[in-house]
Amino acid sequence: MGFKLEGMQELLRKLETLGNEAEQVKQEALMAGAKVVQQAASQKAPRDTGKLAENIVISDVKEYGTVDIGPDRDRFYGLFVEFGRKAGEKKGRKYPKADPHPFLQPAFEENIDRVQDEMADVIRRELRL
Q1: How much helix, strand and coil, in percent to the nearest 5, is found in the chain?
Q2: pLDDT at residue 74 above 80?
Q3: Least confident of 2-16, 61-75, 115-129
Q4: Helices (H), 45-76
Q5: Contacts of 105 (CB under 8 A, 6+ apart)
Q6: What residues does 69 pair with on adjacent strands?
Q7: Residue 44 pLDDT level (bands cut at 50, 70, 90)
Q8: Is the pLDDT score of 107 beyond 80?
Q9: Which residue, 60, 87, 97, 121, is most buried by CB atoms nearer than 10 A?
Q10: Neighbour count for residue 88 (Cβ, 10 Å)
Q11: Strands 56-58 and 69-71, bridge-based pairing
């Protein structure tokens, strides 16, 4: 699941003009913001066994300056929790309808200011602004 921060893209583009140092700062800032969402998503995730909440991961920084935050591959069912699913059958096994119980999107939306603050703090600290 990816999220877009308004206003940060312009700042990140400006960082690109600074070269290699800026790329490292950009990645550190993105990871700092992602950690805020990761922690919030872990707190909001259902706790039937606790495995989902314990396994919310952050991807590496991708080509266009984005990261994905969500359940690891072994907890793929977390996406069914987030988005729900319709009833069906696969390989002879029936599964019931599941209503959505979002925890990733709210983790981002409720913490957007903190995400931007964390990212800005890293940029200011690393570029000595």
Answers
A1: 55, 10, 35
A2: yes
A3: 2-16
A4: 51-54
A5: 1, 82
A6: 58
A7: very high
A8: yes
A9: 121
A10: 10
A11: antiparallel
Q: What is the DSSP string of 53-109?
A: HHTEEEPPP-TTS--BEEE-GGGTHHHHHHH-B--EEETTEEE--B-----HHHHHH
Average pLDDT over residues 57-82: 90
Contacts 24+ apart (CB under 8 A), 77-80: 77/52, 78/45, 78/52, 78/104, 79/1
User: What CA–CA distance (Å, rounded) separates 85 from 64?
Assistant: 30
User: 11: which 2 tokens?
Assistant: 């700042």
**Using an 8 Å Cβ cutoff, are 87 and 96 in contact?**
yes
**Cα–Cα nearest to 96, from 104, 84, 108:** 84
Alpha carbons 105 and 75: distance in angstroms, whole number? 17
